[in-house]
């Protein structure tokens, strides 16, 4: 990691510094660059935003987090399905592919190493922010495309915009791969593929679209950690309650070495169909609302057609990778989530957890996760669940990365030490004392993981 990580990327670009006036957090739009001000000027607890505490420490913590969320992580993680390829062969194939990328762009190849705790996880070191002189010719891309470029993508033709937006963020220089008329001519909108090859990006990361192997899944580190916390075993019956697009389902399948059965539920039929098309072995996909996955009828197991709803105590392990406000994504510049949407997530998350508790067999394992940073969707959710389900016990996973849970919910200090809050803001808090070999465990997206075990009858 270069010493430049604390460099506020937004000073680097044309967006300008964080404004000094204090805009009200308008329902419907929480602009990431205004959030610090919104937090200072308003009772953010009303939004269930990040913490119920208004202590100086909490404000400092939030300021750091908001700053770091505007930068892409400085590491890329790749999950290798070791049931399909050996670690050695995988590393060799990836290295060849990275060298090919480097020949095309002229950028140095990326160094990589295996994660010390997760044997299926390769970590690649990204670079940046680089001081790049803008070339004269300018091309605008939409925000989604720009954020992908900051994480290593090239500019795809579909991301190029005809009209310049109000605010601009410089993401680097590149070489156009298509003619101007091809991009902007309405009749040639069918042109697909790379529009600009990024040869001087502000942030350098491997292009994941070009690392396309059937045994490789680019995944953020906390997502990989989440399934390791679940620790599915060959031969078990596992439920993935919110499964699409299937990154974690495929990881569960890999760890079970295709022995056992995985039920993948997904409410959106379109997303369920795409998940089905992945053709994962031993995975049964159902387009189904997981809040309705508990059956109350008394039909014996042998007479049931396999599928939801399921009787109580059906599963050995359950993953609730819940729908959430996704405020932990990096980089992020604008978030248009409405307050109503923000408030709706804790309700559905609690319902999913309550159904999961019923569907889990005594002695079974439940993992709850979100890719967001709010107290309401994380620590408060865990506290409410424990209060309503005396048979569920919060436990620490065998590999514990990330920070402790935030103060401000009903969780006590011991409980807060058991959950994993991935808080990249910590990078700015203790950057001088943190060992460099640990940076990839902290420089991640914002994420939260809690693991529970259901009491066996004899325990209670
Ligand atoms: C955070 S994403 C899951 C990501 C997935 N686990 C992965 O790793 O690829 C949440 C998913 O839950 C789905 N979802 C939302 N409400 C649901 C419900 N009631 N039942 C089942 N799935 C639901 C969403 O459509 C979305 O695909």
Q: Could you walk me through the main structural features you see in this protein, from its secondary elements to its overall organization?
A:
The chain has 12 helices and 17 strands. It is α+β, with helices and mostly antiparallel strands and 460 residues long. It has 4 domains: 9-69, no CATH class; 75-128, no CATH class; 140-201, no CATH class; 220-459, Vaccinia Virus protein VP39 (Rossmann fold). The strands form 4 sheets. Strands 10, 11, 12, 13, 14, 15, 16 and 17 form an 8-stranded mixed β-sheet that branches. A 4-stranded antiparallel β-sheet has the order 2-3-1-9, with helices on one face. A 3-stranded antiparallel β-sheet has the order 5-8-7. Helix 9 (339-359) links the parallel strand 13 and strand 14. It is globular and about 70 Å long. It starts with 34 loop residues before the first helix and ends in a 6-residue tail after the last strand. Mean pLDDT is 84; it is low at 1-56. Bound molecules: S-adenosylmethionine.
């Amino acid at each position: 990691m270069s010493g430049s990580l604390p460099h506020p990327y937004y000073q680097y670009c044309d967006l300008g510094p964080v404004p000094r006036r204090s805009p009200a957090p308008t329902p419907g739009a929480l602009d990431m660059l205004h959030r610090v001000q919104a937090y200072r000027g308003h009772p953010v607890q009303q939004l269930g935003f990040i913490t119920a505490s208004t202590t100086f420490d909490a404000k400092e913590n939030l300021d750091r987090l908001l700053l770091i969320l505007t930068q892409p992580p400085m590491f890329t993680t790749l999950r290798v399905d070791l049931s399909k390829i050996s670690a050695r062969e995988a590393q060799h194939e990836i290295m060849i592919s990275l060298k090919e990328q480097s020949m095309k762009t002229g950028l140095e190849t990326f160094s990589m190493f295996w994660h010390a705790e997760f044997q299926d996880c390769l970590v690649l070191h990204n670079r940046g922010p680089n001081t790049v002189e803008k070339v004269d010719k300018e091309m605008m891309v939409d925000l989604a495309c720009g954020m992908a470029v900051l994480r290593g993508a090239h500019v795809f033709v579909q991301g190029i915009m005809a009209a310049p937006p109000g605010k601009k963020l410089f993401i680097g220089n590149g070489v156009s791969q298509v003619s101007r008329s091809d991009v902007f001519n309405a009749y040639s909108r069918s042109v697909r593929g790379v529009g600009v090859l990024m040869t001087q990006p502000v942030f350098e990361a491997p292009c994941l679209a070009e690392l396309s192997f059937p045994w490789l899944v680019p995944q953020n580190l906390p997502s990989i950690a989440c399934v390791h916390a679940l620790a599915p075993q060959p031969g078990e019956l596992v439920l993935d309650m919110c499964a699409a697009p299937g990154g974690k389902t495929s990881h569960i399948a890999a760890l079970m070495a295709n022995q056992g059965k995985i039920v993948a539920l997904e409410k959106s039929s379109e997303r369920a169909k795409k998940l089905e098309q992945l053709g994962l072995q031993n995975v049964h996909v159902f387009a189904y609302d997981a809040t309705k996955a508990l059956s109350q009828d008394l039909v014996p197991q042998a007479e049931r057609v396999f599928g939801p709803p399921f009787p109580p105590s059906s599963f050995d392990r359950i993953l609730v990778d819940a729908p959430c406000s996704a405020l932990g994504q990096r980089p992020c510049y604008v978030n248009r989530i409405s307050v109503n949407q923000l408030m709706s997530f804790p309700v559905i998350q609690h319902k999913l957890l309550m159904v999961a508790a019923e569907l889990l067999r005594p002695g079974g394992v439940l993992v709850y996760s979100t890719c967001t940073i709010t107290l309401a969707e994380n620590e408060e959710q865990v506290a409410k669940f424990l209060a309503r389900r005396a048979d569920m016990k919060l436990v620490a996973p065998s590999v514990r990365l990330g920070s402790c849970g935030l103060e401000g919910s009903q969780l006590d200090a011991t409980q807060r030490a058991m959950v994993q809050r991935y808080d990249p803001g910590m990078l700015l808090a203790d950057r001088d004392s943190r060992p460099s070999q640990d940076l990839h465990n902290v420089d991640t997206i914002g994420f939260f993981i809690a693991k529970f075990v259901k009491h066996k009858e004899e325990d209670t």
